[in-house]
Amino acid sequence: MKIIDLTPSYLECKQENNYDSYLKSYPDFFKHFFKYWGDRSLPFSILDFEEIQSLKNRVIKSIRKSKIF
Question: Any idea where the domains of the chain sit in the sequence?
Answer without folding.
Answer: 7-66
